[in-house]
Amino acid sequence: MAAGFGDFVAGTAASGELVVQPRMGFGDVATMRTGLLATKRARATTAGTITVDSYTRVGDLDSAAAALASGAALNGYPLVSHGVAVNRELLRGVRDATFPVQVRHGSANPGKIFEALLDAGLDATEGGPVSYCLPYSRIPLNQAVDHWARGCELLATRGRAEGREPHLETFGGCVLGQLCPPGQLVALSVLEGLFFQAHGLRDISLSYAQQTSPRQDVEAVLALRALAGEFLAGVRWHVVVYAYMGVYPETPRGAASLLAAAAELAVRTGAERLIVKTEAESQRIPTIKENVAALELAGTTARAARPVEPPPSSTDSQVYAEARRLVEATLELHPDVGRALLRAFKLGYLDIPYCVHPDNRGAARSHIDGDGALRWADVGALPLDGLVTRRRSRPVGSAELLDALHYVQRRHDGQG
Questions:
Q1: I want to staple 81 with a disulfide (CB 3.0 to 4.6 A). Which of 64, 180, 212, 364 is the partner?
Q2: Do strands 365-368 and 101-104 pair parallel, antiparallel, or not at all (unpaired)?
Q3: CA of 209: how far to CAs of 58, 192, 293, 333, 381, in Å?
Q4: Which superkingdom is the protein from (predicted)?
């Protein structure tokens, strides 16, 4: 079987290097190819990214095709509309054993995208039935679960039949990007990983997005690794850390500080891959040059960082306790992981703060405590009795929520 995305990451980790990867997608084929080649040539150990456009993400392929025909700008690469021949030409001389490429998409119904990436000879993508439904779609969660079950099975069976071991990354540890306490992010990452395994995937990655507290982030990634070891027997997995996904610093110095902290978090906790952000994130879509600069900064920081020695215990932290409780409570609801997820959201056993999707109960709330850690302000129906106080004495108001959304930006821009 040909070496794939998971093989590359595993080999890189074994050599002591961190894989760094951009979020990058352009509608124009020449620009997309230039971006991939620049990523490949960056002074870091990199993986390539093809991020699809928003029309393709929601299945509006007619609009994607019309934009291509008219020359209108797109905010990503229309993988399905460009077709097999164009996609293969895009990758010719770019993707190889030293440079894997992953397709990123944001779709609650990924079937066509999975078909197109397989047709192009690719083997890696990401998302999940919860993480690409609740934040990005208004289709019912039960439909997303069914779409993702079929998509996983297509990716697993066809990929393997064509001599590749497909790789799928859960976006579960990044749901809404911010203000979700880490215990639930870790739980969702593990639960989507179990969903992938149940539908045939044997090579996966588990995500976690950098949050508001470096100390709590270390607890979270270590908890994620511990729970993956306990629950995901029989699959190969690695952990991918995302640079902060909320309101980003406005100054170059602040953006560099935050990205460097993400790279240090990845190395200290043994994560194998990092998704970077650039100094332009607070203002506009970054250029290829800005993406390369972020990759090189992350790579340089990672090489200078050192893992925690010895690593702190991963099974006696608050994050681990909350995540394990949520995983176990969900799995007890139904032997099928997809049905268990649906019941968990219906009952409020899983509940994403400030998420307005109709299938999210919306009773749970979070706040940032005096030490900068994300905590539960109101757990709603989350099964966390004995671990978390059910309700804070003072509810979270709009002013406190707005302040929390800008907390990381202010800290790294030196505004307190």
A1: 64
A2: unpaired
A3: 24, 15, 21, 27, 24
A4: Bacteria
- Which residue in 195, 184, 170, 187 sits closest to 337, CA to CA? 195
Q: Are 34 and 288 in contact (CB under 8 A)?
A: yes
The maximal CA–CA distance of the chain, rounded, in angstroms, is 61
Between vectors from CA 184 to CA 225 and to CA 402, what angle results, nearest 5°?
125
DSSP structure class, residue 313: P
Model confidence band, residue 46 (pLDDT cutoffs 50, 70, 90): very high
Q: For residue 290, which of 319, 323, 326, 248 has the smallest C-alpha distance?
A: 248
Within-domain flag for 336: no
State how beta strands 374-378 and 124-127 pair: unpaired
Evaluate whether residue 20 is within a structural domain: yes
CB atoms within 10 A of CB 246: 18
Here the tokens at position 326 are: 């949520």
Q: Which of 23-27, 177-181, 309-313 has the highest mean pLDDT?
A: 23-27
Token look-up 């268990």 returns 340
pLDDT bin (cut points 50, 70, 90) of residue 136 is confident
Q: What phi and psi values does residue 169 have, to the nearest 5 degrees?
A: -105, 130
Q: What are phi and psi of 108, to 5 degrees?
A: -80, -15
CA 197 – CA 27 distance, rounded (Å): 33
Is residue 399 in a domain?
A: no
Q: Pick 343 or 138 by higher pLDDT.
A: 343
The chain-wide mean pLDDT, for the chain, equals 92
Count of structural domains within the chain: 1
Tell me if 119 sits within 8 A of 87, measured CB to CB.
yes
Residues 144/145/147/148 CA torsion (nearest 10 deg):
110
pLDDT, position 306: 74
Q: What is the CATH number of the domain that holds 99?
A: 3.20.20.240
Q: Is 229 exposed, middle or buried (0-12, 13-18, 19+ CB in 10 A)?
A: exposed
Structure tokens at 106: 């944001």
Half-sphere exposure of 193 (CA within 13 A, CB side): 32
The neighbour count for residue 378, using CB atoms within 10 Å, is 19
Instruction: Centre a 10 Å sphere on the Cβ of residue 54 and count the other Cβ atoms it contains.
Output: 18
Burial class (CB in 10 A: 0-12, 13-18, 19+), 188: buried
- Entry pTM: 0.95
Range of the domain at 245: 5-304
Instruction: Find how far residue 87's CA is from the centre of its chain.
Output: 24
Tokens for 143, please give them: 């439909």
